[in-house]
Every structure is written in C-alpha cells, then in structure tokens.
C-alpha cells in the first residue's frame, strides 16, 4: 500500500487510507474486522463469502466475522468528498446498518410461536417484512436465521383460508430464494401447491403476484421433472399467470413476476399448449416492448419455447405484430434476446410461407446479414444462417445485389 497520495483521472488525489485494501476503491461503508483492519463492507463480505477465513492484509485468521462500522473514517471520507466536489466527487451517503441479528431472532420467535396472540405474531411478521424490503443486507441477515423454514410453516398452517398471517408470511417469502430442500417440501405436497394456485385468484393483486413469485421459485428450484409437470398441469394456473402479466402497467412488478412464472411453466414441454390456450401469445407480443432488459430476454425465450409447438406457431402467426416486432428486436436488446428472436422467427417461417414474406417485408434480411457479421453467439449466427437459407426464395434479389458487402456474405453462407 503506498504511503502517500495517488492521482486519479478526475484530477483529484485520494488518500490511500480512504481506499479499500481489497478493491482499491474509495470506501463507501468502512467496517473493522477482528484483526483491526478496515475494509469496505461489500468487499470484505464478498471475500468471506468465497470461503476465505483470513484477514486480507495481515493474513491472520478471522475467528469472528462480526463487522464493526468505522464511523470516524466514514465521516472523514464524507468530509473529503464534500471538500472535493468541485472535481466532480459526490458525497457518499451514510449507509444503513444491517438489522441486529438479535432482533431478527426475537421477531422470528414471536411470529412462529402459536402461544402468542394473533396480533403479536402479525406485528412481528409485518416488522420482518419491512426489514426485508429495506435492504439486501437485511435479507441476508434474516435468511441466516432459518427464517424461510418458520415462514413456510406459517404460510401453510391454515391452507383452507387466507388469513392475514398466511398472507404476511407469503409476502416475506416472495422476497427470498428457496433452497432445493425447501422447494421440494412445497412441490411434493399437492395441498400446498393447490393453496398457492388458489391465491392466484385472490382479490388483491399483491397477493396474486406474491403467490406467482413463490410458485416460480418453487418450480425453478424443483429438480424432479414429474413434480414440475404436476404443478403446471393444475387447472387455471396458466390463465391466472397470464392475467397477472396483463395487469395495467402502473404495477410493473406484475409484469416482472408474471413473465418469470410463465417462462418457468413453459419449460415443461407437455403443457405449453395450456399457455397458448390461456392467451400467452397475445399478451407477450403486446407487452414485449415494455419489458426491462432481463425480462425482455425471458419473454423472448418464452416466445421461442411456445413456437416449438404447432399451437404456439398458429397463435403467434395470427398476431399482426409478431413478425415485425421480432425482426425489430434483433441486435437491439442483447445477444440472448437476438438469439431467441432469431429462433422464434425460424420456427414461424418454417411453419408458414406467408410469414416468410412478412419477415422479408419487415427487413429481416438486413438484420440477419448484420447478425452473421456481428459478435453475437454462435447459436444465434447458426439460426440466422438457417433462416437466411429458408428465406432464399423470398429474397428481393435486386436489393441484395445492390450491396457488394452483402453479396460477399451471401456467397460465404451458401
């Protein structure tokens, strides 16, 4: 570690002791470990999470992983940021400290004890939900105290109804990923699955979305193909998920959770036709341009999955915007999105010659030829080449011959 100041590109010098010894970046939340060394909280937590048990600087063993906030250093860093704001340095905000583990244990005990009053248990759950929503750090602390086990017990304690206790536990569980064992405990019990599916028709959109989120979590974490197929075979599950996905845009979480759940369900091949029957094709195409990047990728992956069955091709082919939208997306969102869009177009154009003409009219040739030249995935390029060959008879030859570059690429492809 240098003993002086290091120049930065922004023209300001940063004291070396303001830098985290691990990341070498300005510390935003300095904490002290058992050896007395100070690190940025995120860096030392990542260090420990990857299995390291020694102090990065001293190499001494860390027998106690308690992190103590270095308030004095954090205030000095904030003052330095303010003093150098003319150089474009922004003041780091005062970080919220993670919830006290003792408080978490107390709240879980209060919520899980049937000897407590209903009001006391509900109050504890409400407090836990607020803490879990507050930060990733809080969720990490809560998850290390067997919270999911307690919450699962509360959620399914009264599966013949939907009490406030059940719904509050559901809301908290929807914020956490489940382990494989926890997914199995839910998916292997048909009564529990039926209960979650019944909540998809609840009067509250929050309850419906929370239930969809937990179901998606369970389906994704269940290794047994038979159990996944059994879940997706329940009546109304696809209809309920599509209705969530089609909820007004004023509630964006519905779209995010809806497409995740629909994609998870469509991974079960034998029941994809149920998604088509529920109207998934129309809602996905109508909402495709409203998704955020990762959700758009899932939506396009779902389109490609549904286009692998005849019913899916027919449904997407009947929507006037399917082909133009898929063509427009190529090379616009991400490599994965491009691959899924090209795959869906290949299935559609293989199924119906009419769609080949539509794709060419929408400008697919230019998009595909650019795709072949790009740094996109090899799978995407193979799909593009196959689609170009399929569309060869539909090419407007004059327009292609007008570009020497495209002509050379075409010669290479064929």
Class of secondary structure makeup: mainly alpha
User: What sort of overall outline do the alpha carbons produce when their principal axes are compared?
Assistant: globular
Strand order within the widest sheet? 4-3-5
Q: How much of the residues is beta strand, in percent? A: under 5%
- Can you write the helix and strand succession as a string? EEEEHEHHHHHHHHHHHHHHHHHHHHHHH
**How many DSSP helices?**
24
Q: What is the multimeric organization of the chains shown?
A: single chain
What number is the mean pLDDT?
Answer: 88
Largest sheet: 3 strands, antiparallel
Overall number of strands: 5
Low-confidence stretches: 1-10, 401-405
What does the radius of gyration come to? 27 Å
Helix content: 55-70%
Q: State the end-to-end CA separation.
A: 59 Å
What this model shows, in words?
It is a single chain. By secondary structure, this protein is mostly helical. Among the domains are: 5-87, 2-Layer Sandwich (Herpes Virus-1), CATH 3.30.40.10; 315-414, no CATH class. The chain is built from 24 helices and 5 strands. It has helices spanning 41-49, 71-83, 101-112, 118-134, 136-143, 147-155, 164-173, 180-187, 190-199, 205-221, 225-232, 237-245, 252-266, 272-277, 280-287, 293-306, 310-317, 322-329, 335-351, 353-361, 364-373, 378-390, 397-401, 404-413; strands at residues 5-7, 13-15, 30-32, 38-40, 68-69. A 3-stranded antiparallel beta sheet has the order 4-3-5. Strand 3 and strand 4 form a beta hairpin. Helix 7 (164-173) packs across helix 10 and helix 10 runs parallel beside helix 13. The radius of gyration is 27 Å and the shape is globular. It starts with a strand and ends with a helix. Mean pLDDT is 88; it is low at 1-10 and 401-405.
């Amino acid at each position: 570690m240098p003993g002086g100041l290091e120049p930065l590109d922004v023209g300001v010098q940063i004291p070396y002791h303001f830098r985290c010894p691990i990341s070498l970046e300005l510390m935003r939340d300095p904490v002290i470990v058992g050896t007395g060394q100070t690190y940025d909280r995120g860096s030392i937590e990542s260090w420990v999470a990857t299995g390291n048990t020694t102090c990065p600087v001293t190499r001494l063993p860390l027998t106690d992983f308690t992190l103590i906030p270095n308030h004095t250093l954090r205030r000095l860093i904030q003052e330095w940021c303010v003093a150098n704001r003319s150089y474009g340095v922004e003041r780091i905000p005062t970080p919220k400290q993670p919830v006290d583990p003792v408080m978490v244990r107390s709240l879980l005990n209060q919520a899980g004890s049937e000897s407590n009053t209903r009001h006391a248990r509900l109050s504890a759950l409400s407090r836990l939900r607020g803490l879990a929503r507050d930060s990733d750090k809080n969720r990490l602390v809560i998850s290390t105290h067997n919270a999911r086990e307690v919450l699962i017990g509360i959620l399914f304690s009264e599966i013949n109804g939907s009490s406030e206790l059940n719904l509050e536990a559901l809301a908290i569980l929807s914020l956490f990923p489940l382990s494989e064992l926890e997914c199995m405990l839910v998916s292997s019990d048909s009564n529990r699955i039926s209960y979650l599916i019944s909540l998809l028709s609840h009067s509250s959109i929050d309850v419906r979305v929370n239930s969809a989120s937990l179901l998606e979590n369970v389906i994704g974490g269940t290794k047994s193909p038979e159990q996944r197929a059994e879940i997706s075979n329940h009546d109304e599950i696809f209809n309920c998920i599509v209705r969530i996905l089609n909820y007004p845009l004023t509630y964006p979480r519905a779209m995010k959770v809806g497409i995740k759940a629909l994609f998870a369900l469509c991974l079960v091949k034998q029941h994809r036709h149920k998604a088509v029957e529920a109207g998934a094709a129309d809602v996905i195409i109508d909402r495709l341009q409203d998704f955020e990047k990762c959700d758009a990728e899932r939506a396009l992956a779902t389109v490609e999955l549904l286009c692998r069955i005849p019913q899916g091709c027919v449904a997407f082919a009947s929507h006037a915007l399917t082909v133009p939208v898929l063509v427009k997306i190529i090379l616009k969102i991400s490599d994965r999105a491009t691959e899924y869009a090209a795959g869906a177009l290949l299935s559609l154009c293989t199924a119906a010659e009419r769609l080949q003409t539509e794709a060419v009219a929408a400008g697919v040739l230019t998009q595909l030829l650019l795709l072949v030249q790009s740094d996109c995935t090899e799978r995407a390029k193979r799909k593009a080449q196959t689609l170009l060959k399929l569309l060869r008879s539909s090419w407007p030859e004059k327009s292609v011959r007008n570009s020497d570059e495209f002509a050379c690429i075409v010669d290479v492809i064929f």
